[in-house]
Amino acid sequence: MEGHQQGVVTSATLMANGPAFQEAVQLSQSVPKLSVGCHIVLTDGAPVLDASQVSTLVEGQPIRFRDPLSMVVLAAIAGRLDQDQIQAEAKAQIRKLQSAGIVVSHFDSHKHTHLLPQILRPLLRAAKACGVPAVRNPFGPVRFGDIRNRPRLWKRFGEIKVLSPLAAKFQRATEQAGLKTPDGTLGIVSTGALDESLFHSILRSLPPGTWEFVCHPGYNDSELQKVQTRLRESRAEELRILTSAKSRELAMEAGIELISYQDFVRNGA
Question: Residue 234 maps to which CATH number?
Answer without folding.
Answer: 3.20.20.370
